[in-house]
Specification:
The complex is a heterodimer of chains A (278) and B (251).
Chain A lengths: L5 E12 L2 E13 L3 E5 L6 H8 L8 E3 L2 E4 L2 E2 L5 H7 L4 E4 L3 H4 L6 H13 L3 H14 L5 H5 L8 H13 L5 E5 L7 H18 L2 E6 L2 H7 L2 E6 L2 E7 L9 H9 L22
Parallel strand pairs in A: 3-9, 3-10, 7-8, 8-9
Antiparallel strand pairs in A: 1-2, 1-4, 1-5, 5-6, 10-11
Helix pairs in contact in A: 4-5, 4-7, 5-7
Chain B lengths: L1 E12 L2 E13 L4 E5 L6 H9 L8 E4 L2 E2 L6 H5 L1 E4 L13 H11 L5 H11 L16 H13 L5 E5 L7 H17 L3 E6 L2 H7 L2 E6 L2 E7 H6 L5 H10 L8
Parallel strand pairs in B: 3-8, 3-9, 6-7, 7-8
Antiparallel strand pairs in B: 1-2, 1-4, 4-5, 9-10
Helix pairs in contact in B: 3-4, 5-6
Classes of the chains: A alpha/beta (278), B alpha/beta (251).
Amino acid sequence: MSEPLLIVEDLNVTFPGRSGVTRAVRNASFTLGRERLGIVGESGSGKSTTGRALLGLVPPPGIVTARTMTYEGKNLLTNTERDWQALRGRRLSMVMQDPKFSLNPVRTVGQQIGETARLHLRTSRADARKRTLAMLEAVQIRDPELVFGLYPHQLSGGMGQRVMIAMMLIAEPDLLIADEPTSALDVTVQNEVLRILDDLVRERGMGLIFISHNLTVVSSFCDRVLIMYGGRIVEECAARDLHNARHPYTRALVAATPSLDVPRAELATVTRDPAWLQ
Amino acid sequence: MIAVDHLNVTFRSGDREVRAVQDVSFEVAAGESFGIVGESGSGKSTVLRAIAGLVPSTAARLEVNGRPASARRTREDRRMLQFVFQDPYASLHPRQTVDDILREPLAIHRIPGIDGKVVKAIADVGLLPAHRFRYPHQLSGGQRQRVAIARALILSPPILLLDEPTSALDVSVQAEILNLIGKLRQGYSLTSILVSHDLAVVAHLCSRIAIMQFGRLVEVITAEDLRTGQVTADYTRELIAASRGFTRAGA
């Protein structure tokens, strides 16, 4: 593989609070090339916070520290808000989980996507419209002209998710962080959305970080997977080897997932070992 | 135990009419665990609500606990059939303690021996005695769902209806709750209907499974059929393939 897009070493995110400091991410280290990297974990494992830290979007009073955090060789740790704005959207981008909460409810789909295009590509209104329609078509929306004029509440979940992906992709980022992009979708729609992301990684050579709690989706979609527990990356493995994972937590998660193939009388439960957090 | 024959549920708003459930028929035998799967808007939850009498429905025949179910359920009818809902954060009263929550059904149905029953229900669902006087916000999602299950079982109903009982939970907590449901079903010799969008969950817990799409019943298959792919409808096949994970086009 060529030079990694992203190098992260010893990433820590802490939130000071009344009852002491919460360590949301602890000493996470990983790299990302032009590939599909999955991050799996349960609620509170720090997977979304890791994604946000990469975009400088950890809300205050959160504190991000790391030994190294570079994107195409550029140090992200010294970024000012202005530096982040130059990167976000155009180079790094993020698709959020729920279109209902992430789209502006009082602006049409076309206005929102077009704004992204005009802001990042510094293009004209007419050109932005043309690009928006092309992008809507690229994410397989059947009638782009119609959807262009719709408001978010008029969209179904799957369409809303596609609109968000279109909005993020119109600025042609090199790295996309997708935070549970398919969790709110029906399984049959989920696969259509995954196929769109898959094409983009393969055709445009985009890097993708795919955050999910769904082991089946991650193991079938990603190239590599990081498993997070309590803010730490407890294991990294090839996605197809997830079912032969070594770490007891990963193994327990796999065994706790009901399977269509193997009937089990009882599901294994996860016994947490404090040593995993050491 | 439960018989549904040509069940129809229609919602009207203004001059718009939505036929949420159309001509759905199936039977569930005593002690059986029946599953209903489908995607959003397929009408699976509405079928469950119609059986519980929570939405108005019409049917050629609707039998619950071996007796025709009338549109107006008596208190006795309601005791026979209890419900566990999807979201444990929304289905427990935030200002009531676990003790209040578990007492209420017993008080409504004027069942004596409240104290002993509450203590037993708490133990049955794997909660600690210390949880009895906690409020829902002091419990985790899995613990709340245990409380919801205890509330449903405290009346010792013969029938338990479960609407996506683990969809809001993490995988590890889901495993604990699914195991608990499996165990209690035997202990209480329950007849149950489980609704879920997750084929693996339904196949794990149910012996027979109805597939629904657009308000209609596509087919009824066994869990074994689901695993081996012995299905007749294209939609079922598509659903199974999608549930097995992502496949690249042409792969």
